[in-house]
Amino acid sequence: AELYFHLVLTLKRRHKIPQDFAAVLPDSFARSAEICEAELLETAIADDHCHLLLRANVTTYIPDLVMRIKGRSSREIPSLTWSSGYYIKTVGRSALKTTKDYISKQK
Question: CA-CA distance, 82 to 4, in Å (whole number)?
Answer without folding.
Answer: 22
